[in-house]
Amino acid sequence: MAVASGAAMAKEIREPAHLPGAVYAVSKRLFDFVLALTLIGVFGLPMLLVAAAIRLTSKGPALFWSDRVGINNHIFRMPKFRSMRTDAPQLATHLFQDPAAYLTPIGGFLRKSSLDELPQLLSILKGDISFVGPRPALFNQDDLVALRTERGVHRLKPGLTGWAQVNGRDTLPIPVKVDFDTYYLEHCSFWFDLEILWITFFKVARTEGISH
What we know:
Blueprint: H1 22-57, E1 63-69, E2 75-81, H2 107-113, H3 120-126, E3 130-132, H4 142-151, E4 159-161, H5 174-187, H6 190-205
Parallel strand pairs: 3-4
Antiparallel strand pairs: 1-2
Helix pairs in contact: 1-3, 4-5
């Protein structure tokens, strides 16, 4: 399994003050698996309809697979519904000069509604990500990977949503995002995860914190 190059950029790796215990880790994995399986059953048909709409409105596959940085900086492949043209570069959204220029006809809607994230339920089933954790960085986001490694955040499994996402999502600069990730590392618990999921539901409903 490959390791993210950005990890080598961290000059000092601190031992985190708090790491999840075994009981929390097992209960969280069980919760992730059962909820992901349930939601795939509920959203299976809508996901097929979204996939068909993508294929009908733009050239290319319905799913876009990107290399992401997982727990301990291991690289894994993560799916999303494709919201950009196939010639779009693999960059974080904030690095595009004009992200809208690359969006497919329904790409903006998929992002605003967060429907593009639904295929990540498969990544949760597989165990690559959790429902709650730091959002997985792109393989080439060296600055984000390095800072997370320095803070010990790389020891956490990434998530579909997280403490940084419910406090700003795309609008947060990287140092502030990692501050929120570090807070989650030091305070993570099953009840904190449920709180983040509850807040996420309302944030998604109001499409808050999405810049494009």
